[in-house]
Amino acid sequence: MNEIKGRVINVSNRLPVLVRKYAGGTRLERSSGGLATALEAGWRDQPGVWIGWAGTGPDEQIEPLLVRAAHRRSYTLRSVALTDEEIAKFYSGFANEIIWPLFHDMPSRCNFDPEYWEIYQRVNRKFAKVVAETAKDDDFVWVHDYHLMLTAASLREAGVRARMGFFLHIPFPSPDMFDKLPWKKPILQSLLQFDVIGFQGDRDRLNFASCLERMLPEVMIERSGPHLLVGQGGHRSVVGTFPIGIDFDAFEQDAQRPEIAAHAAEIRKRVSDDVLVLGVDRLDYTKGIPERLKSFRLLLRRFPEMRGHITLVQVVVPSREEIPNYKHLRREVELLVSQINGEFTEPGWVPVHYIHRNLGRDELLTYYRAADIGLVTPLKDGMNLVAKEFCAAQIDERGVLVVSEFAGAGPELRCGAIVVNPNDFAEVAQALYDAAHMSAEDKRSRMRVLRQIVKDHNVHRWIRSFLDAIPSADGAKGSAGGVSWSQTAGSKVRQDKTMPGVALVAAALSPAARSRYAIGKDAKLRVVSAAAGED
Ligand code: ADP
Ligand code: F6P
Fold first, then answer.
1. Atom of ligand 2 nearest to the CA of 34
2. Catalytic residue IDs
3. To the nearest whole percent, how much of the chain has pLDDT over 70?
4. Closest ligand 1 atom number to CA of residue 170
5. 398: which residues sit within 8 A by CB, 6+ positions away?
6. What's the pLDDT tens digit per position in 229-239?
7. Taking the model in full, what pTM does it have?
């Protein structure tokens, strides 16, 4: 791993914990969402500082709570307080009413309010100020996600000399989509001040490179080893693909606990002794929940023999509730649930069980273990950790994963999963029917492959590969996967079809892991040798 002499300073809008206010006071909750879950799992036992927002307005009670939360962590938590105006215009506004829908290819949901941009710049400077107070020259500052795309420029202006990286947890859009953003150039220019820029998949990295080529033609891009090297002015950035994962071993171990198995059996007895289908999502319009419900309804209409024998448990965690699009979504989902239940419920069988709350980890694991089918059908997603968590918890290799081709995890998991287009309700209904009728042997061989892939692509490997891409401190020579910093950059983007990435599972795996799989005559991926520990 590239040597970091100092600490890693993680910077993200969300901290791993969330301060919730109640009439009686405040309390801490675990943050949901892929970023918080993955970093929290990967960061265990590593010293450092995590800088972020605790999910509430300025409140003197926050610091003691964060100090207490840091007691059982190896890093400290430092909060950035946001005013009510900043929460409304930076978090809900610019981040989640402009960037989130645009980057998920849903421009009609964007509200391009120019005031949002003003506040976005202000809050990025605010985060940068806290980082500048914290970071030393030999630290590595790792900024996460779309809320903080301008921090690099502010950090350099504030005199921060530490090396800096940025990872985008959500998709990066195509040039035609990104072009719609009035502030596209300053965002690209600021991103290029990071030393390493990471994306979930090759789709995202190619989109980013294409945007640079179209919108900043003066920038020089060339391929170097597994990464791209992008030069702007006197600075060069390594641009790479680093698909995120989960802490597979922790999920597997926890799922094995006897009390989890007992609760899972209890749920099956109470909800469905037959086929239990599970959806777990933040309540977000990108997750395709109404489309999923319509597909399930179509299944019950087309295959009447399934009625009474298949049950959908849809768990949603409330999310971004102040934003109108999210309020409408909740109403739409709840209406659909009640319509389906109204149409099909029979004595002793309710087709859709709907849970609207943040589940504790054990409860979540219990549902993962109880399920026969994991139904993960986002319309677009950076990665989707729920798909991976479901596989990790399938210790008895009994479950089937149905996954959207538009999830970041879709291409990576396609060899063992049933891959669907979430907009094709008939296809999803058929996939559920097929999964419900799949032989135990087929289920086992598919799940075995999936679990091996999720195990290999774990969160620890994600962190290592990102940190390995950091150029060395002298700035002259980089050790990022063979990147030579003395090379003369070319002026064209090379969209090389051979670029490694998740699109081809075999290519996405490390050389050591690659030898563990073989493509069979039936075009399915098979595990041919056991994992030899971490690669
Ligand atoms: P996103 O980051 O867009 O929310 P991911 O699937 O990558 O999507 O990550 C979601 C994370 O949030 C997962 O780790 C999942 O376990 C967690 N999560 C989702 N729904 C719930 C819920 N109802 N209760 C608790 N955790 C949840
Ligand atoms: O994993 C993607 C992500 O967008 C994170 O950046 C974000 O923290 C998470 O989903 C949940 O969203 P929010 O922070 O708005 O609750």
1. 1
2. 169, 381
3. 87
4. 3
5. 372, 440, 443, 444, 447
6. 999 989 999 99
7. 0.89
